[in-house]
Protein: Glycoside hydrolase family 92 protein
Organism: Lepagella muris
Amino acid sequence: MRYYIILLTALMTIVATADAKTITSSQSSANERLSDYIDPQIGSEGLGRVFIGPSAPFGMVRPGPDCTPSPNSGWLPMPERVDGFAQVHVSGTGGGPKYGNILIQPFSGNLTATKHHAHRLNEEIKPGYYSTTFEESGITTEITTTPRTTAYRISYPSDTPDKPNSLMIDAGFFLGENPVPDSREAQQFVGSEVQVVSDHEIAGYSRIRGGWNNGRAYTVYFHLSSDTPFSQVATWKGDSITNDPYQYDSGEKTGALVSFPPGSDTINVKIGISFISQLKAQRNLISESEGKDFETIHSELLDSWDDMMNRIKLHPSTPADMKRMFYTAFYHTLIMPSDRSGENPLWTDPGVPYYDDFYALWDTYRTSMPLLAIIAPERLCDIVNSLVNIGKRDGYMPDARSGNANGRTQGGSNAEVVIADACVKGIKSIDYEEALKMMLVDATIPPGGNEEAEGRGGLREYISLGYIPHGIPRAGNRTVEYSLCDFAIYQVAHQLGHDELADRYLKQSESWKNLWRDDYEHDGAKGFIMPRDAEGNWLDEIPFGKSKTHKPTFRYTPLTFEGPWYTPWWNMFFYEASSWEYSLSIPHDVDGLIEKCGGPKAFDQRLDTFFSKNYFNVNNEPSFLSPCLYHWIGRPDKTADTIRRIIEENYNDSPTGLPGNDDSGAMSSWLMFNLAGIYPNAGHDYYIIHSPLLRSTTFSVGEGKTFSIVADNLSDTNRHIIAATLNGKPYNLSTLRHSDIISGGELRLKMGPKPSGWGKRMHAN
């Protein structure tokens, strides 16, 4: 009897301990703030170029340090100098800089200079918060933000009474300045204005043009309010500092300098921003931050990020470094585009959303927009409606847009793919008939000399010849990508019942085959997208330069990059990739591609060569889908091995943890999908299933429903799917429909050390 009592007591203790651990784990999970796993420094160095300052999801302002006027996102690592803190930036972009407007800089001293560069003694970078202390002055600047207003808390040292606590407001500063007039991709100064409105307020604007998209002039208005009155003020224009309370716009750079009374060691400054007017900037400041202190604004900002982060939850046992990678990637995906609804200076359509800073749809249509279709369909709806409205008002939907100006096109007119993706996935509250009209504008009306900014360059040739001939910039990838965009038109027309139109564009979506050179062989692979002239001749030799006398040429191969060594990136046959990459970038017709490559066996060998010879480019979007192409020949195990290797070799949670420009979260959302074990084929309603790197991922899909992907027995050894169930029933397909996800449920994957016969078929029919 004593034995049973002891045994029972032991069992009760074990159960109680287990229950306590379960409760503790559950409580820890319930109390966990997922924004704590966001590390804005991941991808901030190297090629990633992400923005490190505080930002609201899709916020209009992104304040942060500007370390010289050179970097795209403003920030550079220490020990680079800090020119000040501007209110508007982009994230993860390549090419020339944009924005960097309305710079402020705290300093100690008299109001006698317009530049106050400083160096950081330290800095703290967290989600929704940035701070640094300057080495020379000991001044600490803290920053947080609302969607349209920046909040600063500036702490001056108390042991320098002989040096006034001062602040510079520079309305003429911007990133990417170049002394050469109209220099390509450089921003150019147009005008600025400042006015001391009261003893604690300053207002004005900065007007800049150009930048990466070579766009028309945009104006950033501001209204600054301090909780401490100014004791002294000055303004400047050009190189002249005066006691005048304002400087009107005469085409010279302007700014203001203010000092605070002795003993005012902590100053709170708020800056409202608008693209409409100074009064609207003031209204944004009042409506979003009046009566709120720095900590309240910061807390509300973190709440907004946690609201988004909580839409995807990982298993509690997920390693911390993996959580940091995942949630930081999620964060980066939600920084841009910028929600400027009600802030459009070009036209007014009440109730219609307006978004800017599409950098660029060529990047984000592949993974970022499909992610929103799952976790934020209401946001995707607004973005699509904005794209259509821009098309109606500006003439063309953007492929890229910034500073309220379309530009630049990189390949296709990719708003079509975003719209098709939303349409086939049933995103509501979009007028798809109106959207189709704008898609057809892209597909039928040449942009008339403005091809770099919008529309389809080479459209006449594409329609008449069935391809774009060499000599027209980006002829190769434009032909390939217009084919995909035509398929997107087919998808929407088909959904709407416009059968004749759908059939026309389905046929036109095969235009990529007109640049497919069947007999060309390279490194064991046969058939490539290659240059062709307007007469239909294949070009083995490409003209070098523009000499009309000597006419030198060079041999073109599937690995050739003819730029930028003699031609700009924008004038190459392929944009940012080789024929090896683009010849595998036919996402709407992979079956046709396999046939062109010589069948499944030859395609398998071609993919093996592509990855083993490093022809695959991890840091560029045309190769995003390529690892999943093994699925089309019944080898999901090879997809899994390839993706795992790519992630392990190229992604991590360090400042250099992104392998390429993040491009508004494109690189980050690619990582998110593949960690979870599914991947979208944009413009289609399915996701490719492959081996996850996460034990479980649960998506909140609206109406209180969730969808979970669970990998049982997942380990470094058990990395292959050997069986699967969907909502408890055996599931042998290697794709998942969007409707399966948003209906809620569970995809459970049984993992093992070796591939089985699972997943050889992608679709039921």
